[in-house]
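thread: overnight batch results

M.L. [08:02]
morning all. the overnight job finished for the chain we discussed friday. pasting input first so we're all looking at the same thing
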Amino acid sequence: MNALIGDVVRDVLGGQRKAARAYWRFSSESGEQELQRHFASVTRYDARSELVVSEVQPIVDYVSSGWSLASAPDDGRESVLREVERRARAVIDADGAFRIRTDVGCFVCR
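M.L. [08:03]
and the structure it wrote out:
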């Protein structure tokens, strides 16, 4: 999903804007090192899954709800959403579903 959004935003808005991810700074990958500076013990637990989406509209709605497009011009925002819809539909038509890998992490710190 992040690749789809990033590619569409870059392609449609011509590299003027990149899709923002709220978790660039602190993530499952970077969090352990940051937390170890403040806690004696840090244990990371991971849960990986896959979300299978068989309809285009929930994908478009998700992208539309993101704040990363909030400052885009109205015509740019609509163009991005139309292109997301087109690309997601192509994946669903070809593969039967749009598959989104989900990686969730939890840290236990002491």
